[in-house]
Amino acid sequence: MQADTYDVDGQRPVDPGTGVVSAFGRQLKLLRTRAGLERPDLGSRTGYSPSTIAAFEQGRRIPSPEFIDRADEAVDARGVLKAMKEEIAKAQYPAFFRDAARLEMDAIEVHVYATLAIPGLLQTEEYARAVFATRRPLLSEDTVTQRVLARMARQEIFSREPMPTLSFVIDESVLRRPVGGRPVRQGQLEQLLSHGRRRNVEIQVMPLDCEEHCGLAGPFTLIETREGRRVAYVEVQRDSRLHTERATVREIEEQYGLLRAQALTPRESLAFIENLLGDRDDRSDA
């Protein structure tokens, strides 16, 4: 079956992204004009530059929840703009990831196997920007900025109460790849150590010299919701699929269990990352 973007019920959804952002921008401009405000005026009341407000009104950037709240009050929208916050939040992610992002926000467990890049939940802002900036076809600067902000917003999961259980198995090659250059890689490794010391987070490294490796088919994410629903998310080349069939999810869960057994333990993995940080002669830093 060809991979595509599906919702949790297996149906192909209508892309809500560009339309709702453009509609918000038109509504914002109409309300701002009705209130007799120029863009600099609204900027001073919301803490955003006139150029950023122009980008919001033209549908080129996705506004943050904070801006929507402030703008609603500044133009006396009486909740009209705030009512669009949920749809705007969905639009901040590319279409193929929106359903997974929605599930992730309310998950009690998230388990990630990464073979290509540091998982988004663990990325530093600099690493994330490097990932998006080098994507082909090239993304616009506004899109890169928005994708980075959205990725950073996902990391609020670390401060959520009650704490979700988070685990990651990361291929050694990912840790050695100098995405964004050596300083970015160093900062990323330091962040991995920081997250790896959290009580609800376990990070494991799959070493390159491991002879038994059951994850050669590629990366995936396992999510368990508060309702006890278990979902597997698989993505490749911006095509994605949320698997909800119990038989398929069980197969991927079994694969993840074997990967964790084959990888270094969490304690060994943190020591491994510390060694990478201290190895100034590593070839990937050249």
Summarize the structure.
The protein has 286 residues and is α/β, with parallel strands linked by helices.
Write the layout of secondary structure elements.
Layout: H1 17-34, H2 39-46, H3 50-57, H4 65-74, H5 85-91, H6 98-105, E1 107-114, H7 125-133, H8 141-154, E2 165-171, H9 172-176, H10 182-196, E3 201-206, E4 220-225, E5 230-236, E6 239-243, H11 246-262, H12 266-278
Helix pairs in contact: 1-5, 2-3, 7-8, 10-12
Mind explaining what this structure looks like?
There is one protein chain. Helix 7 packs antiparallel against helix 8 (141-154). The N and C termini lie far apart (42 Å). Residues 1-17 and 281-286 have low confidence and may be disordered. Strand 4 and strand 5 form a beta hairpin. The longest helix has 18 residues, at 17-34. 31% of the residues are buried. The protein is built from twelve helices and six strands. With 286 residues, the chain is α/β, with parallel strands linked by helices. It has helices at 17-34, 39-46, 50-57, 65-74, 85-91, 98-105, 125-133, 141-154, 172-176, 182-196, 246-262, 266-278; strands spanning 107-114, 165-171, 201-206, 220-225, 230-236, 239-243. The protein has a six-stranded mixed β-sheet with strand order 3-2-1-4-5-6, sandwiched between helices.
